[in-house]
Amino acid sequence: MNLIGALFIISMDLTLLVVDAFPPNECLEHCTGIMQIAADNISNGLFDPLPKFSWSDLYQASQKPEYASQTYEILCDAYKRADSCLNNCQGNPDVTTRIRQSYASLKIVCVDQKREFLDILPCFVRTEQVVMEQCKKDISGTLNIINSFNDAVKERNQHHIQSSISNLCRNINQLAKCLEKPTTKYCGKNAADMVLRYIALGFSG
Q1: Which of 15, 38, 156, 205 is the most buried if burial means most Cβ atoms within 10 Å?
Q2: Which UniProt keywords apply (predicted)?
Q3: Is the four-CA dihedral 85, 78, 143, 155 of positive or negative sign?
């Protein structure tokens, strides 16, 4: 579950780029701000110190099962409030659609398949460390790329931003392939399918 939280933080960074690419809209910025606060709260629990993300911080967080339920509650509460917030926004519907697409992965675990996700959550928590060890290379690579991406955003280096996004997409695909086998082994095919769908929806935009 902590890994899922980390993937949400990464997808949130990309979502903010979408919002920034369009004319300012206070309502949309308020709605995405709800999700950004959630991302910051999760980051504070998983990584120390911010803004750099590391595999070792994430691995240490996986040793604390209580983070799993906290992360889930933060994610789902923020998703529901942000989704309701978007209903009240006027302006470019394409932007609203893009934002909702970036949150589609949360709709799966918080609404559409909430019961199924909660059924497999205990297995995720029990086996997260083992899965992380087996996929350490791909997880570390993904975190390193997002660190580089965040640096490029701060420096407004458009070329570096685009190359980081391309590298991130490739690395996310590799990570998904790596996670599939151990998740299937320890938690079953349905659990693995849900993880893969979560990743696919979170980074489809």
Answers
A1: 38
A2: Signal
A3: positive
